[in-house]
Design brief:
- About 10% of the residues lie in helices and about 40% in strands.
- The chain is mainly beta.
- It folds into two domains: about 110 residues; about 35 residues, no CATH class.
């Protein structure tokens, strides 16, 4: 199950997955050019990469490409799309933290492996945002609501209750 959390309204909901005939796969998620990316890993056989073109609309899932075991060096445990090329015709992918390569979307094949990579590495896509995760956090570490709660507790104690030690 994939769950989306809306921080603005503090609510969550299920994000419906693409339709599959075969249900025996592991799920991984990512982001590719601002679109939610769904990876269906069929346990060493292949990895299907889907993107959701219109967020929240199940029918907008589009299968971008699929990489089979025979197309990669070594065993296909994981695959992570990182970015599109400038032309948009290729996708940079990470394979098992061992290889970086380009997937050619027109020819539907892995095109170029990038030489000189360290033995093992991890790459991730970074999504920049100007929106603060917690815009109400003050320098004292408390949120505005927490500060108001503290003031309410002080008011509550000062109205009719005495603390006896």
């Amino acid at each position: 199950m994939v769950v989306a959390l809306d921080l603005g309204v503090e609510d969550y909901r299920e994000v419906l997955q693409p339709e599959y005939k075969d249900k025996n796969f592991y799920i991984d998620l990512g982001i590719l050019r601002g679109c939610l990316c769904f990876l269906a890993n069929f346990l060493g056989q292949r990895v299907d990469v889907w993107i959701m073109k219109e967020y929240g609309v199940r029918e907008s899932w589009t299968k971008l490409f699929s990489v089979a075991q025979g197309e990669v060096n070594g065993f296909l445990r994981s695959l992570k799309p990182l970015a599109y090329s400038k032309s948009g015709d290729e996708v940079l992918i990470e394979h098992d933290n061992l290889d970086l390569c380009w997937y050619d979307l027109k020819r539907k094949q892995i095109k170029n492996r990038i030489p000189g990579m360290p033995y093992s590495f991890e790459a991730d896509a970074f999504v920049e945002s100007l929106i603060s995760v917690n815009p109400n956090r003050h320098l004292d570490g408390r949120t505005q609501d927490e500060n108001e709660d503290m003031n309410m507790r002080d008011d509550f104690l000062s109205e009719g209750f005495k603390l006896v030690l």
